[in-house]
Every structure is written in structure tokens, then in C-alpha cells.
Design brief:
Elements: H1 3-21, H2 25-46, H3 48-59, H4 62-86, H5 90-107, H6 114-136, H7 151-172, H8 179-194, H9 198-216, H10 227-252, H11 259-263
Helix pairs in contact: 2-4, 2-10, 3-4, 4-5, 5-6, 6-7, 6-10, 7-8, 7-10, 8-9, 9-10
Length: 266
């Protein structure tokens, strides 16, 4: 079997998977995507005092402002997750979660940690894909108002979402480990970013990420009182969110700004 025949066969398998799962794949994608916000909102409730004390000590902002920060994170994240899962006010929920990402990036000094910054940007990419999906369902904030280029913003959201999602994989590549694995991973990342063989590449990355996530971020094997438990749990749910973003790419397609779409014009 030649390389082209193998790729065509693999694409057929991906298309078959999409046909079988098209009814519930978007729901699974949304649940995975918002999982890190859901987990963090719940953690704010159970670690209320620790989070408040950390912010108060780090920023010397006083008890009241530190409490407001924790409360805003709790309500903003849990409320946004409920709205997204119930398909109500999705665009407002996404903008709220964008705000939470920006707030946490500053409050926890993530801006100066390249790895965590790239992961937060990848989360933003997933939210962009959610915004694109909400536009495709016709749930615009300006419903009923005519627009000449209504699909253009959606297409660029999908492009931006794809490009930002690949930042997660750059934090997972280990250049001192398996060279072949890094090459394959990098190739798949590039394919998703440029929108070529997008569904197949994204589906392959989903499988790869799931395996990496379960193997490296098995927080359930670490006692809850150890700091490593929380670190692995954080990584696990952030990676799950990116998996959700990739599943949305599989469900929605790459959008108009992609090589897959341009091929149709050739």
C-alpha cells in the first residue's frame, strides 16, 4: 500500500468515526474543554482559605480584595461552565472565561513562566473554537442584524483557535527523549495549524494526548496531601481541555482559512 493510499484509508476511518459520533462528539468536546475551569472553580471552594491567603500574601492586597479574587474565580468559572454546557449565552460565558484566564495569568505570575503561559494561551484557543461553534449555530449576540461577512469572524476564530491549541504540544515535547516521537508530534502540530488533513491530524493528536495525559499526569496515584497531587491534577485537566479543543476541530472542521478548504477550490 502506497503512502497516498494509506492516508486516504486513514481519512476514511476518521470520517467514519465522525459520522458515528457526530451526535454526541460536540457535547463531549465541550465537557472536556471546560473541565479545567470546572475543576479550578471547585478547587476554589474547597481551598478557599489557602487561595485567599496566597493572593493576600503575594500581592499585599488585603483580606477583602483577596476574598473578592477567589469569589470572582469561583463564580466566574462555575457559572461560565454551566452556561456553556447548557448552551445559553455561550459567547458571554466565553468572554468571561477569557477574563478569568487573563486575571489568573497576572495574579499567579504565569506571565513570566513560558510553559504555563503557553498552556493558558492554548486554553484561549479552545475558547475561540467554542465562540466559532456558537456563531455557526446562529447564536450571535446581534441576532437578526444583517452582516456582509458573517462567516469571516468565525473562520478567523477557528484559525486562531487551531494555532493557539498547538502551543500545548510545544510544552509536551521532550527534546532529550524519543526523537521519532517528537518528529511525528511536530508534524501533526503543523498539520493542525495550517489546516491540512485537519480532522485526521487532530484525531491522532487526541489519541496521543490522552495516552500522555493518563501516563504522565496520573494524579490519582499520588496521596492528596502531597503537593505533587495538585500539580499533576492541574496538568491533567489543562491537557483534557486541549483535547476538548481538538475534538471541536474534528467536529467543526478547520474552517475557511485552511488548506483543506483551499483544496476544494483547486
Amino acid at each position: 500500500m502506497g503512502q497516498e493510499d494509506f492516508m486516504n484509508k486513514a481519512e476514511d476511518v476518521a470520517d467514519q468515526f465522525l459520522r458515528v459520533t457526530k451526535q454526541y462528539l460536540p457535547h463531549l468536546a465541550r465537557l472536556c474543554l471546560i473541565s479545567t475551569f470546572l475543576e479550578d472553580g471547585i478547587r476554589m471552594w474547597f481551598q478557599w482559605n489557602e487561595q485567599r491567603d496566597y493572593i493576600e500574601a503575594t500581592w499585599s492586597c488585603g483580606y477583602f480584595l483577596a476574598t473578592c479574587f477567589v469569589l470572582l474565580n469561583l463564580i466566574g468559572q462555575l457559572g461560565g461552565c454551566v452556561l456553556i454546557l447548557s448552551r445559553n449565552f455561550v459567547q458571554y460565558a466565553c468572554f468571561g472565561l477569557f477574563g478569568i484566564i487573563a486575571l489568573q495569568t497576572i495574579a499567579y505570575s504565569i506571565l513570566w513562566d513560558l510553559k504555563f503561559l503557553m498552556r493558558n494561551l492554548a486554553l484561549g484557543g479552545g475558547l475561540l473554537l467554542l465562540l466559532a461553534e456558537s456563531r455557526s449555530e446562529g447564536k450571535s449576540m446581534f441576532a437578526g442584524v444583517p452582516s456582509m461577512g458573517e462567516s469571516s469572524p468565525k473562520q478567523y476564530m477557528q484559525l486562531g483557535g487551531r494555532v493557539l491549541l498547538v502551543l500545548m504540544f510545544m510544552t509536551l515535547l521532550h527534546f532529550d527523549s524519543n526523537f521519532f516521537s517528537n518528529i511525528v508530534g511536530t508534524a501533526l502540530i503543523i498539520l493542525v495549524a495550517i489546516g491540512f488533513k485537519t480532522k485526521l491530524a487532530a484525531l491522532t493528536l487526541v489519541v496521543w494526548l490522552m495516552a500522555i495525559n493518563v501516563y504522565f499526569n496520573a494524579f490519582w496515584t499520588i496521596p492528596a496531601y502531597k503537593p505533587m497531587h495538585d500539580f499533576l491534577k492541574y496538568d491533567f485537566f489543562q491537557t483534557t481541555s486541549v483535547i476538548g479543543g481538538l475534538l471541536l476541530v474534528v467536529a467543526l472542521g478547520p474552517g475557511g482559512v485552511s488548506m483543506d478548504e483551499k483544496k476544494k477550490e483547486w
